[in-house]
Amino acid sequence: MIDKSVLxxxxxxxxxxxxxxxxxxxxxxxxxEMYCKRVDTVYDGLSGFEYxxxxxxxxxxxxINLPELDGLEMIQLIHEISPHTPVITIxxxxxxxxxxxxxxxxxxxYLRKPINIEELQIEILxxxxxxxxxxxxxxxxxxxxxxxxxxxxSKNKEILLTKTEKDILHLLISNLNNIVxxxxxxxxVWQEKSMSIEALRMRIKEIRHKTYCDIIENISGCGYxxxxxx
Length: 230
Prior knowledge:
Rossmann fold, Arc Repressor Mutant, subunit A
């Protein structure tokens, strides 16, 4: 049995469970919600993706064989807007398709049903170990706290941003040193609404004005990127 002092490290973790079997979904949620900051459960792949877009999760635990949208297809959509979010796949069908599909979608690990709860808890701990190190150092003394979603300057003063600016910044910093495409930004920030390139440029301009001019790098024809201070 895992010591409770170890499980306390899950206290900041937000988990999305996507599982169409009611009994399994309930058991997974019960095993995590007493330790994690937030645990949400949905029962099909389409709802899983919609929940992920509208909320902030540190890890996704999902079945592969799901109604509405296949689990592997859902993972692909999630990784298009958040490539580094760890995903744990669970399945009763230990076949080549599920194993290769999980590998191709860069899942963190693959667990076979029936799920060993302690094994799942350990895998979540390992997959989210960097969440507790939430401070991201940027240039010119700026620091971003991924957990609190707060940007501060060299004097430790918070930079006030609009919701859209915060969402853009969080998405880019969550994909630090990687290019985030225009379509990924539109999907994550604007969601069901249509985004114009001009509207995005205006938001980027405002973030630069409130911070420093090269905080966000424009990759022509591709998207935007934020680099770490190193």
